[in-house]
Amino acid sequence: MKLKIFLTNTLSGKKEEFIPIDKSDIKMYVCGPTVYDRPHIGNARSSVIFDLLFRLLRNAYSKVTYVRNITDVDDKIIDAANKNNENIESLTTRITQYFHEDLGHLNCLIPNQEPKATENIPEMISMITRLIELGHAYVSDGHVYFDIDSYSDYGRLSKRKIDDQDIGARIEISELKKNPMDFVLWKPKKQHEKMFFSSPWGDGRPGWHIECSVMSKKYLGNSFDIHGGGADLIFPHHENEIAQSICESKNNKFAKYWVHNGFLTVEGDKMSKSLGNFITVKELLDRGIGGMALRYFYLTSHYRRPLDFNQKALEDSQKSITKFQKSIQKYSEKFDANSKKIPDEFLSYIADDLNTPLALSFIHKLSSKAQEGDENYAIDMLNCCDFLGLNLEEKSGEIQLTPEIIKLAEERKKFKADKKWEEADKIRMQIEEQGYKIIDTKDGYEII
Ligand code: AMP
Ligand code: ZN
């Protein structure tokens, strides 16, 4: 039986059956990171969700082409390089490496293509030139803007009417634009700015939105199956991508299914660099939370819903991973690596718009039965975990202490030796605030 996949399509606002454009090659484009700083666990939620969708598609179809770009030219990159007194290229290379490293810990598969914006500048200039020729863009004092009044469907994805737009909130106001909602395709270099490219409109660099229109077209063509990203990208980024791509190719399709993940939140607020309420994947790993526990945590909530970050939920995720590991321990020698049969019930949950909470509760049932002694349940469980990218061979739960925590623990030890109990208690609290626990032992202390 061919697996039927259902996905919520932001374009229709409904859950739809996934019918590929060409079932011999499924094509998916996902907006990747802007490489100016190490990814936080909100960014990684998006990466894990689309990794799971990629795994599902690969299970159902013989070929899947997954493209995820790297945005390596942006104001934030220039600012970060200036702040660090670092060369732009060394910054973007370093952060891209971190991104790969961190996603590796989360067991994310590598996309088939990972194009960089800076390697596609001539293609961007060509697309902008064509948009100008077709009357969809105009030049204004070294800038090129997309003329949103030239595209009557503008606002279709985000369900916004042009008049309703909250001008100023996320829209750059400028006298150079015909309509305040027009967005930039090319911007001129500022004085002293070191990152720029030459173009028919002067030295400068592309706007963010044109990057994805160009890179998706280059690797997937004018029409492809799935376009993904976080819900914050629906407007303006994806709305603008649609306008550019459809107008340039004179094709009214572009991406067929638009899939968006909800936010990882902290006490209800979106985790973001700008709010400063973020924690990086690396920080979490350094605190001893296993990559698989974090991956499990992401899967506890449906991908479209917000997921609130808290230490307790992470600890529970770690416990679940440990439970799964224990339930296969006694059988490990008997597993046949070639037997990858996934239970239909489990597959039906994942295929139903990635219903990971149901899929996880199914695995828990298998795990309990495996612990009761039935090897077949253990095999099923292992295969389901494998499908979700939960690698049970990860050695987790080992706390990796930061130098700061060790320093605090040593200071506390000294205070205790000097019988300065109040100071020692203060330090205990400081340690606990950072998510660790210190236990006194005969030989000194243990941190968990
Ligand atoms: P950025 O590097 O900021 O362009 O973000 C990379 C990806 O992470 C995009 O798809 C964003 O939508 C997504 N993203 C950013 N913050 C969060 C968050 N708090 N929760 C979930 N996804 C996020
Ligand atoms: Zn994009």
Ligands, deduplicated? adenosine monophosphate, zinc ion
- Secondary structure tally, helices: 14
The overall pLDDT, averaged over residues, is 92
Q: What is the molecular shape?
A: globular
- This entry's quaternary arrangement is single chain
Biggest sheet descriptor: 4 strands, parallel
Percent range for helical residues? 40-55%
- Sheet with most strands: strand arrangement: 4-3-9-10
Rg value: 25 Å
Number of strands: 15
The helix/strand series, from N terminus to C terminus, equals EEEHEHHHEEEEHEHEEEHHEHHHHHHEE
Distance between the termini: 49 Å
Q: Decide which structural class fits the backbone.
A: alpha/beta
Percentage of residues in DSSP E strands:
5-15%
Poorly predicted residue ranges:
none
Brief overview, please?
By secondary structure, the protein is α/β, with parallel strands linked by helices. The protein has helices at residues 41-60, 75-84, 88-105, 121-133, 208-220, 234-249, 281-286, 291-299, 311-329, 344-351, 356-372, 375-387, 403-417, 421-433, and strands at residues 6-9, 14-17, 26-30, 64-68, 137-140, 143-146, 183-188, 204-206, 224-230, 255-261, 264-266, 269-270, 307-308, 438-441, 444-447.
Pick out its properties.
globular; 448 residues; alpha/beta; binds zinc ion; 4-stranded antiparallel sheet; binds adenosine monophosphate
